[in-house]
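Dear support,

Our group has been running a series of protein-ligand predictions, and this particular one with NAP is the one our PI (initials K.S.) wants archived with full inputs and outputs. We had some confusion internally about which version of the output was final, so please treat the block below as the authoritative record. The input we submitted was:
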Amino acid sequence: MTSDTVKKTHKVTLIPGDGIGPEITEAMKAVIAASGAQIEWEVQHAGEAALEATGELLPDAVLESIRRNKVALKGPLTTPIGHGFRSLNVTLRKVLDLYTNIRPAQSFRGTGARYDGVDIVLFRENTEDLYAGIEFEKGSEGVQRISDVVEDLTGVSIREDAGLSLKPISVFGTRRIMKAAMDYAVANDRKKVTIIHKANIMKHTDGLFLRVCREVAAEYAEIAPEIEIDDLIVDFACTRLVTNPERFDVLVCPNLFGDIVSDLCAGLVGGLGLAPGANIGEDCALFEPVHGSAPSYAGQNLSNPTALILSAVMMLRHLGEQSAAERVHKAIAEIIDEGAAITYDLMRMREGTTDGASGTKEYAEAIVERLSR
Ligand code: NAP
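Confirmed final output from the archive:
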């Protein structure tokens, strides 16, 4: 091998995650190993596995590893609902300032999904809004003090038995997510960027988001006059997405709407098993599927690893491994289209039954076999 043909090895932090995380991670590793890219995985545990091994949910070693390698791939992590510890996913995004969450929803032929030809890329602000984690428990001193201030300033009284979550949306945070969406649109020859908001009701948060997004868009008018900018109120955007998804191109959303609308977009193209994501900051990037840990499927070799594999494809592109990324994408598209080795969720959508579905491992093996041809 000449020096020209020696491939660069990329060191990447790998967090298998909880629930179905470990099995979809094994499937993903097999596919990426066959992609032609040289990836050295540095495995780190967070969540339940870390708690068991170290007594901590998010050991410092995980953050150190991501900061060192600058690129990470993560399976889903469980968060208790309505009580217990705060989301580790949200913590990772905040601590590493991964302010851009990119969630593509793109149709594959042969899924049997309700729509064909969907090609939406959603940009979600990842650090602010009701996701900022500024919450006060019912009956706490925080609720009492904030209620007093609110009543003093506005005359509105908050019920004594209320909990409170704050929704900060800043000019700084909005500018950088809109710039990320516009830069993506310019670089990828996209035709339209739609700003999603609820500015009619929340004038000082979503109203600010809309105004600042429009200001940033105006700064791109000279370099990209062909990109259309529009905006929609989030509720109507949801209606439009399910009636005319082909009308959408790039979406930019505040944090909470981005979370919800991206799951809707995943449904348009066939479900969470197919929805990848990337969290990008100035220093680090963390790739992860949109879906959660699906605990009831854990350890059963049933779940669809495509969302994680497609997240790895996004990671390969980020690392400059374009041809490996394209090869994996093409192999996935072919295997799904042929339908001979697909997981239960795709089989259910395509044939109306899960009979004859392949397991997680067998589906990955079919992709690996296709890559080796
Ligand atoms: P979920 O784990 O995403 O699962 C919801 C449903 O989506 C599953 O029952 C399954 O539907 C389908 N699904 C999800 N992943 C799939 C896959 N790989 N292949 C095929 N189908 C898949 O959502 P959840 O049950 O609400 O959340 C479980 C836990 O995950 C919670 O603790 C939550 O906080 C956490 N979570 C973590 C992340 C993250 O790590 N970034 C994101 C979201 C949620 P069917 O049963 O209909 O087939």
